[in-house]
């Protein structure tokens, strides 16, 4: 069998490795635009801040590693077209026939059509190339004032990196609060205060209408001109669907796949940022676009190419980040989004400490849990705190993935030791708060 | 209603507080031998090491707090007998009538009948009084060499505390490895190496036959005399069941209760260390004797006293500790125990890092997962590592509590961010290892 993968990012590279594990003989060919196989795009802000010393570090494996696994790489190569009838991929370096084709074309940074967005000093933060450009600019121009457009995950991680490098930072967000798809306003405002205390400023509900100067010297918001000698555009990503669309595959915001990750052509699969998955809460198709989702889709698609018939499970989009010394963890639906979707919810919220009161060094932690009224299941969580947020979001997410109800959390067993966590965990109390409202 | 609680420890005190939350008017009377309400016995080793600055800190609430909640306290009082016919508790300070009685009599340190065990310098580590005595002895005698009998949780936490205070420490364990009920030998040996590197010595498969000197100057193991000027006896605890037994209640190793935590007398409940619960893996009655279990039993018993009919769920004994800079988390059954119980298991084990390779500061972590062959469910986990063990054991335990299978873990969503965790989590890989053996 000849398996061709278009895309050498997280999804494509992991697919190739999983497929090789499952079959030693299959021909596996990866066509990639970049010169290397996968690197970790989530790591880019941490390269920028200097926490990861070298950009090259984030390349997960060197090309030789894939060669040893007998994965053929056609790097620096662009797939131009898919001829589904002849089962060939047409690239700028010739035709590549396939038995099974995997689309792992990823996503690209979305850049809104703001006047001046092409000027020197305006960047996105999606690829290694982006980081190289920013680093060269930092070196050359020594900017002092950064404006970040967009208060999503990448925007905030970028803002923190710039702040850690000593720049003044203003974040501008069109919506009403930061991390608008991950957090509700009450929780977002806690994160906001934390970032403001460390010198990051915010403007919400407004848009940058123009970027002035080349190199950039200011941004325009309404009538106001705000000084800026570096602009980061972090207004989300768009799935790369052109190739799929041209090939006549069913495409929505992402490439449409069934639960086995097959596109409308049974010999073509789509995985990673370019493909839609099912949302575990709403049941609707959605773009997950998390690294973990890409890897998990790669695994399932590899199994299905070899006929295992594994269903890709709907996603909760469990996510975590660290901004300065605050951990932020979420999964599932926010209260705001639930209201838009017409889902009745019961919420439990509790502010506690990460350690027992008597143990020195405990840090504040806020837990917000969202339960569906109809079936009492936990369908969302937002946790913000100074430590051990990750463990709590992991626990709640695993519980949610198994359909846990408010009772399951409120009466659930937690692990306690004085240096680590309180006897009655904040997640337990938050669930108890919700449970009382159910009764 | 007049509710009488015997025992002012974790279970008794929490019961009183939960009961008060449920009913503002009920008479709630706590009879306790000690002079305070609950303190945290798990915190005692950390008081000893000095990590918790003052012994008094570990008293969870002052007596005034309970007074404000209108909880009547008969402290410094011993319950002598229960007259079930007249529904009265007979104490050394008079009779106390009850409508519902809660036995929260706790457990006591088990001291094996070793010759010399009564000598000066030989201690247990179960109560605040124990810590006071040890601290006075440390002050007065300035011991240099401690022998700890028993390599369970308290033994090891005590050993670490003594080591941190600068003593030489030898731990003697009758069984073949440390934490014998929580870990298998392969995982225990990792913990052992960690402790040995920090100067704690071990002897396994041997017993102390005699304690020599008064004050103690040595212990005898076989023919060998080993110098020791402090001995900690940490050979487990025994449920306090005398009162229940005298009252004619059904008693096994602990007081027998049904799933509503009622004893064989429907007006008497038993909670905490003195009562047996159901083991989630074997289905058998067991003594859990964890602080978290005590609190959870207290909550359920309080609800049931007021007729809510809540079942206490079988326990996985999810537990965590920190020994120097190693976190150790477990739940469920070990492979060794499963073999004794005749349960066929499939094991997945993986050694990885707590962070992605490219991110500085990752620490080794070892995950061992135990699945039941019959239904593919996760029934045990042992994790040892330099950080973020707690989160993984919490996640796996919550999954296990919802009946998660090997597929649920292997295909489960985890939360990833470069400074926090790898894209493919060690628990995912461990589950994949097991899954391959299933197939």
TrEMBL record, chains A, B:
Any one GO MF annotation of this record: oxidoreductase activity
Record key words, sorted: FAD, Flavoprotein
Domain of life: Archaea
Pfam family, one: Pyr_redox_dim
Cofactors: FAD
All copies of domain Pyridine nucleotide-disulphide oxidoreductase dimerisation, residue ranges: 323-423
Signal peptide: none
Residue ranges occupied by any FAD/NAD(P)-binding domain in the UniProt entry: 1-295
InterPro entries found in the cross-reference section: FAD-bd_OxRdtase, FAD/NAD-bd_sf, FAD/NAD-binding_dom, FAD/NAD-linked_Rdtase_dimer_sf, Pyr_nucl-diS_OxRdtase_dimer
This protein's record includes keyword Acetylation: no
Family: Belongs to the class-III pyridine nucleotide-disulfide oxidoreductase family.
PANTHER family per UniProt: NITRITE REDUCTASE [NAD(P)H] (PTHR43429:SF3), PYRIDINE NUCLEOTIDE-DISULFIDE OXIDOREDUCTASE DOMAIN-CONTAINING (PTHR43429)
Protein name (record): NADH oxidase
Species of provenance: Thermococcus litoralis (strain ATCC 51850 / DSM 5473 / JCM 8560 / NS-C)
Lineage, broadest ranks: Archaea, Methanobacteriati, Methanobacteriota, Thermococci, Thermococcales
């Amino acid at each position: 069998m000849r398996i061709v993968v278009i895309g050498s990012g997280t999804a494509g590279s992991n697919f190739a490795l999983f497929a090789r594990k499952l079959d030693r003989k299959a021909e596996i060919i990866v066509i990639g635009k970049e010169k290397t196989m996968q690197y970790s795009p989530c790591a880019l802000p941490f390269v920028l801040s200097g926490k990861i010393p070298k950009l090259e570090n984030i390349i997960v494996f060197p090309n030789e590693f894939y060669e040893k696994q007998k994965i053929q790489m056609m790097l620096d190569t662009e797939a131009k077209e898919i001829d589904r009838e002849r089962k060939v991929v047409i690239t700028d370096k010739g035709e590549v026939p396939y038995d099974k084709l995997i689309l792992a074309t990823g996503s690209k940074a979305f850049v809104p059509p703001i006047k001046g967005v092409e000027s020197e000093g305006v960047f996105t933060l999606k690829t290694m190339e982006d980081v190289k450009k920013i680093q060269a600019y930092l070196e050359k121009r020594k900017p002092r004032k950064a404006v970040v457009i967009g208060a999503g995950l990448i925007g905030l991680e970028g803002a923190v990196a710039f702040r850690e490098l000593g720049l003044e930072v203003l974040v501008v967000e069109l919506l009403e609060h930061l991390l608008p798809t991950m957090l509700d306003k009450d929780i977002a405002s806690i994160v906001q205060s934390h970032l403001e205390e460390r010198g990051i400023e915010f403007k919400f509900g407004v848009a940058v209408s123009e970027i002035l100067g080349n190199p950039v010297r200011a941004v325009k918001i309404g009538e106001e001109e705000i000084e800026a000698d570096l602009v980061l555009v972090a207004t989300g990503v768009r799935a790369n669907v052109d190739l799929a669309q041209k090939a006549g595959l069913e495409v929505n915001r992402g490439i449409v796949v069934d639960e086995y990750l097959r596109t409308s052509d049974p010999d073509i699969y789509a995985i990673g940022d370019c493909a839609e998955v099912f949302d575990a809460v709403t049941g609707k198709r959605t773009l997950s676009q998390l690294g973990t989702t890409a890897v998990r889709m790669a695994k399932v698609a590899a199994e299905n190419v070899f006929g295992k018939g594994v269903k890709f499970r709907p996603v909760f989009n469990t996510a975590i980040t660290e901004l300065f010394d605050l951990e932020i963890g979420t999964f599932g639906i926010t209260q705001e989004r639930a209201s838009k979707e017409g889902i009745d919810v019961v919420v439990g919220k509790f502010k506690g400490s990460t350690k027992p009161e008597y143990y020195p060094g405990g840090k504040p932690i806020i837990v917000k849990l969202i339960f569906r009224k109809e079936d009492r299941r936990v369908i969302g969580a937002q946790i913000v705190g100074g430590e051990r947020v990750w463990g709590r979001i992991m626990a709640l997410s695993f519980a949610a993935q198994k359909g846990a109800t408010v009772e399951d959390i409120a009466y659930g067993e937690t692990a306690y030791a004085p240096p680590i966590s309180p006897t009655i965990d904040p997640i337990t109390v938050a669930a108890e708060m919700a449970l009382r409202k159910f009764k």
